[in-house]
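Continuing the batch. This is chain 6 of the set; chains 1 through 5 are on the previous pages. Same settings as before, nothing changed between runs. Recording input and output for traceability.
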Amino acid sequence: ALSESTVTLMAVVFDDDISTVDFRVQFPDGTRSNFSPGTRISTVGDLTTWTFDLDTSAQKGLYGYRISMVDRSGNTVRHPEVSLAVEGGGGSGGGGGGGGGGGGTEEFIEFLVADTAADIVDAARSDITSLINGHPTNLAAKFVRMAFHDCVGGCDGCIDLTNGDNFGLEEPIDALDPVVAKFAHFGMTRADVWALASLEGARGAQANGDDLPFPMVWFGRPNCEDAHASGDCVESDCSAKRGPHRELPSPHLTTQELISFFNDTFGFSEAWETVAIMGAHTLGTLDRANSGFNGPNGWLGNTNRLNNGYYNDLIGGTLTDFQSGNFEALMNSANWRIAFYNNSEFGTPNRWEWERRTPPDHFVMLNSDVALVRDLSGLIDDGDGQVSQCQFVCNRNDPQTGCPLPRCPHAEETFDIAAEYKHDNVKFLADFQSVFTKMLEAGSDTSEGCLTPPCPLPGTFTDSPSSSPTTPLPSASPTIPQPTSSPTPKPTRTPHISIMTEAEYDALDADIAALSEAFGTDDISRAHFLGGIVRLVAHDFMDFDATNVTNPMGPDGCIDMDHPDNSGLPQDVWCDDCPLTQVYNANFIHLSKADFWVAAANAVIRIASGGALDLKNTYVSGRADSDSCDSQGLRLPAASGCDQVELVFVDRLGLTRAEAVALLGAHTIGRGDAEFSGHHGIWVDTEAQSVVFDKRYYQEIFNRAWIPRNLNDPLQDWTWGGNNGESPRFMLSTDICLFYDIETTFPCCTDTSLSLNGGGNQCDRGGVVLRNTPCGGYVPGSPRAEFASAVELFAGKRPGGGFNNDNSPFYSGFSSAWSKATTNGLSGLQPLVPNPPTDSPTLPQQTTSPTIPQPTSGPTLPQPSSAPTLPQPSTSPTPKPTGSPVSDILSEAEYDAIDADVAALSAAFGNDNVSRAHFLGGIVRLVAHDFMDFDQTDATNPMGPDGCIDMDHPDNSGLPQDVWCIDCPLTQVYDSNYSHLSKADFWIAAANAVIRIASGGALDLKNTYVSGRVDAVSCDGQGLRLPAATGCDQVEAVFVNRLGLTLTDAVALLGAHTIGRGDTDFSGHDGIWVDTVAQSVIFDKRYYEEIFRRAWIPRNVNSANNPQDWTWGGGNNGSPRFMLNTDMCLAFDIEATFPCCTDTSQRAGDGTNRCDNNGVVLRNTPCATYATGSPRGVAAAAVANFAGRQANGGFNNDNSPFYDAFAVAWNKATTNGLSGLEPLRGLQVAAVTSAPTPSPNSSSCEDVESFVHNGRVRDCAWVIVGSRCKGFKDLCPFSCDICHLL
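Output for chain 6:
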């Protein structure tokens, strides 16, 4: 149904015993109505027609409905065999279809209601996403490849499968056929669907954290059977699989030939466009049966991920080498060697290819790939592509071998571009998006531009052949305000109120992220920018005075820019030429500055916390800007001490002392500038840390010997006694006073025990000796002791010294305080307006239990308890559900409710991390035991994630006792609120919640979650398929051979051992896999670090009572650290050297070797390691990579390699063997567009007034501010200074 306000649903019933037919509707946002009675409109014999008029004016998108019939005896039938149809309201006809028809076999019959072309494209994209997520092969890569093969000669939805170059493309064509059929009557051609599939394939293949959109700008591409201009289809009936014959590029093109091909075919006039489009080779593999090339691992091994990894092995050196122009280091990359394959057995051409590593674990490059970095002109043999006159690099591993052949010369036009992409993934993705979109528009007239995408191609729906779609997509109404050619002046302070929409909030977040990214590696400027925005908001709300009834001020968008305490804001943050002001003037001027500033600061906090602290859900708007704020600067706190903290934050703002401490934690980002405030330096340890929003600020208060600087100066602050280099660390008196009573003991030193490396005390500096004058602390129970307690809590200070890795107390405290401070004195503020609005039908009922603890007025300190009090469901738990098939699709609201329920259950444990580890780890183990029984080799009973576990099998011991039982909290939550879902879907959603909670929000799997799994009725033999804890033969048998994963995937999944613990009552293994009980509830890479950190030795060897595992030779502090054989074998060849010790160099405090324990001496028996390049060597390399192991033996702080790999492996394992799974109902993906590329008038060389990029109106000021000339110089030739080139 197209642009209809009412749709009539109809059921034709062939049974005269039916008395009532009820209809239940599923709305586009995923919510569902109750069953409502239909209207009987006619009866003919035993055939009765029932209808139901559905109001679709509130929501557009994909609807569904199902039928419930009641016979005259009162029996209900929910799945009748009926004929079903859909009629458009008002007799206009309309679209049925999509999800069902006669037979009633679909639970919901789907149909689309659309207002605009964007609605239809979004619906098609959603179907394509489901295809990709539910398909057993890498459809994303296949869609990207198919687009390239389709667009050579014009993107017309036709490929000639008789052409050997197109072998292997039948699978993606067939996969898209249902989508093509479903959307044909809405005006989307097959060529459009193929193009959209390639865009979604590229978008979805980005790594976590890379979320560059790949929008659909144009539609209406004619299919080849409708485009007769070339005459290619005259002699044969063209179709999707029998398109015009087109010559695809040779795999042996040289640099110039490659550039010429892309220029002639797609209009890529610049070398960077060719280099960028070749980056698509990061996706997919090569098959000798299709192309003749032997590349089962693809070009670089990670065949599902679109990133800059393709260039990594073509270019050598480091970022420093690139920035300094160290040419030899850049040339000295991976050692690619030429190899030959005779393909007579496959019937494909014989091939020469470049390989790295030893087959079958090798990576592949073709001559046309190598041509990006090596000039092979005249060096490729014409017959078969052999390169025999030069080699890629000299043999770095064997200096005596030298270079038997000269090194191939570098490719001058493209080498530097490839090197740039290697070190800048953001730039690569932006450039790839630009050229990929340009490729999909090849051969089409897009000169008119597209203001509100998607737009119809000119002439699309005039004189259409009869086989073309006859119903055009509706045009979108332009809703984006048009900016002037230059930013408007700074607005006056007139009060106005406009409520912010979710789309506007997200767009602003994206703008702040883009401005931040534009600083590249310049963290000093980035710290000024990010910290400046937070300071702007703080200075806006810190003038609030609850005691001043006539003029309370507060967050009102008004700051006295002339007051010295606001110095720096009108120069660098809010000025006519400041990037933040330009963004406001160009796109958000309809909002109050107060609302805009707070939303911008929220974006800073989300970005700088790596997504761990996202304040979107607590954001409210409707603040009115004040037109006057005289004396605002007089209300700001001076930097003199805690009397000012109490006066401003406690007395005037009405906050608690703990909330004041939380807000001051914002000092962790930004820096002091002597030019403005008179204070110079950063509050944390390094420039890199000054752009990270975490608890480091509080740790720094304890880490250093802080001493006063600039004594007897009004700008006196604090520095430390060590070496500062070029980035002085400093604190204000308002920082130091939070923990130390500096008013009583000034001048003093905060830690008199710290010495300098060269001798001397850090407290003695600049002629002032303070080694004997320690700063005092506050008396316990005194008001200011509340400051100190909060500092310790937020720092994560441990009783024995050091700090934990948990930011959550700070994040929780800051979130509560920030919400209060930014809403002080205001009423009537409103949350974000959802986009699109969800007016609605009956929403899923909010879970009555468990409830989420409400934030208190200050951060709640954990209270010890002997046993956690778990929330109880409102009714008695129902018996454990039987295995009857259930396959409801989860809505986003239900997913979020499950997440909240699991979070509440976890929070209820208080300080009891032992019980919390059992609970969180148990849920993840439940899911793992459900999917680890999958066997891809068993066609009759593959099992897998089917909600069925043999609870009587000993390998599942602990699950029926503590995790899934009638009295278990997780089961009670399921029975009370989610029993309409399959257990398989519910368990995975609950485990996703565990992972999000335990990673502090850093790993959120919501966007990749799919549902629709059906619970198995029986799973006899399930426990027999689980891996034994004996060694890597079990890892390979289960994860690789049965589940079909890679060894890297297996290593990533075993990283889940980082949470949870072994229990002798169930598994016989006792202990935790990490260092402390607190760490056993954190989902991060510590598990991998622990494998290397300790001297692991076998435990319980030949024991008749306990299973053999591994422990270490040091003290365990009541929580034994242990590893299983399946853990140790990932990095060590324990089969070859058992019993052995993993690190024979470690000594205990008394000098004894930690490999000697309990009478067993293993100091001389180190565990062997695997040979580099061997299959298990791949696993060992993955352990080192995920651990972040550094050359000096330490570890970095980057969890992203583990998180990225885990997300991929988890998605594979939880969808193994299944198809038709669907993403969350109602999950919104913002529609975006890209910029048109009209050619400027070279004679006048004028910038365009404005253009649309990613759904937003932009101008050339935005291009210059963000250093975006590379992608937009054709639109802004004057601003980008290229007029002389035109």
